[in-house]
Amino acid sequence: MNSATDPKSLINIQYLRAVAALMVVWLHARDHFSWVKTQFPSEAGASGVDLFFVISGFIMVYTTYGKNITPGQFMARRLERIAPLYWLATLAVVIVAALAPALLKSTLLSSPHILASFAFIPMRSPAFPDNYWPLVIPGWTLNYEMAFYAVFAVTLWLQGVWRLLALGTVLAGVVLCGIAFNLQGVAGFYANPIILIFLAGAIIGYGYASGRLKPSQWGGALMVSLGFALWLGMQHVQGDYSFLRAGLPATLIVIGFCRIPALQLTWLSWLSKLGDASYSIYLTHVFVLAFLRNVLQRIGISIENATSGWLYMFLSLALSAGCGLLIFRFIEKFLAQKTATLRLRTPSIAAPIMAK
Fold it and tell me: How far, in Å, CA of 51 to CA of 26, rounded?
């Protein structure tokens, strides 16, 4: 097997998944106290979403490359992987918002919005009408994920580079239609150029799985350095340069980590575990941060200085990561086992195509 396609080298992608999840936690932790947001004004943590999207495009291509998988089988596996924990988190928001609304002050319940949230359909949030956010706010990215999965599933009828070309044609066509016709509402949501980041990841996945993306420690390190430098440099640039600010840096960093031989270092094992639990961390950190905010407010902590700001951010990251690990171990894996059992009992459902 070509070392570039050695599954062990995907541990590098696990590290990136952990980093992406923690970036999003950092971004949202700032929002719970105005003085913390003043101390940490940068929105750089939002780039974690772009990193997730690149990785998603990469993984979809890598795990289906050279395999005979029908669109129905693919979508069944994606729903098995994504939906149970998300539905459970959405149900938790409904229950908490109904029984203890003070804990989730920014949540307003409406039946259409609840149904849309469960169905992965973008809909304006009753609490934030300018945004197409579901009840579990980070779930807005899952609406894009599901749309990408649906397009990708159709391309599974094609093989090799033709699949990639079809995927690129559809995604680029949607974005161009959005620009040409100034699409608004739900159509405008789906026509957001952010969907091209999935395509960037898919191209990397094809190069990696086919062996065209050759391993090179120095070449990979250079690509990571370029991506990181671009990401840092663009954070202070004004204007709508979202792809240059986050999409392109994330793409370069993923390429670099794919080219670098597997970093199986003992001292990084904790980061690999966080990568395993990244989906749990991503979905549930909003609960952890809301709980932490209420606890700190109840005990009356009001020391607004640099030290307390850093301590709060560290505590937010540590608690979100720790809770995410527990949820992954005892809930997400449990749900995966149950869906696996259902799959074995139902011959029409495909065998798994990916573990993560």
Answer: 15
Q: What residue type is assigned to position 189 of the chain?
A: F
Q: How many domains does the chain have?
A: 1
Q: How far, in Å, CA of 279 to CA of 160, rounded?
A: 29
Query: What is the rounded CA–CA span in Å between residue 143 and residue 212?
Result: 31
Give a yes or no: residue 355 inside a domain.
Answer: no
Asked if the structure places residue 352 within a domain, the reply is no
| Segment 257-313, tens digit of pLDDT | 999 988 777 777 899 999 999 999 999 999 999 999 988 888 876 667 778 899 999
Residue type, 287: F
| Structural contact between residues 120 and 142, judged by C-beta atoms closer than 8 angstroms | yes
Domain that holds residue 216: 3-345
What are the CA-CA distances from residue 340 to residues 145, 241, 333 (Å)?
22, 42, 10
Q: Is the pTM of this model over 0.90?
A: yes
Determine, yes or no, domain membership for 25. Answer: yes
Structure tokens at 256: 């670099």
Q: How far is CA 99 from the centre of its chain?
A: 29
Alpha-carbon span 207 to 180, nearest angstrom: 31
Cβ pair 61, 164 in contact under 8 A: yes
Distant-in-sequence contacts of 342-348, Cβ < 8 A, 24+ apart: 343/80
Residue at token pair 């809301």: 290
Q: Map residue 208 onto helix, strand or coil.
A: helix
Vertex 228, ends 285 and 209: CA angle to 5°?
80
Residue 121 near residue 143 (C-beta atoms within 8 A): yes
- Predicted confidence band at 235 (pLDDT cuts at 50, 70, 90)? confident
* 356 within a domain of the structure (yes/no): no
Helix H or strand E encompassing 18:
helix 11-29
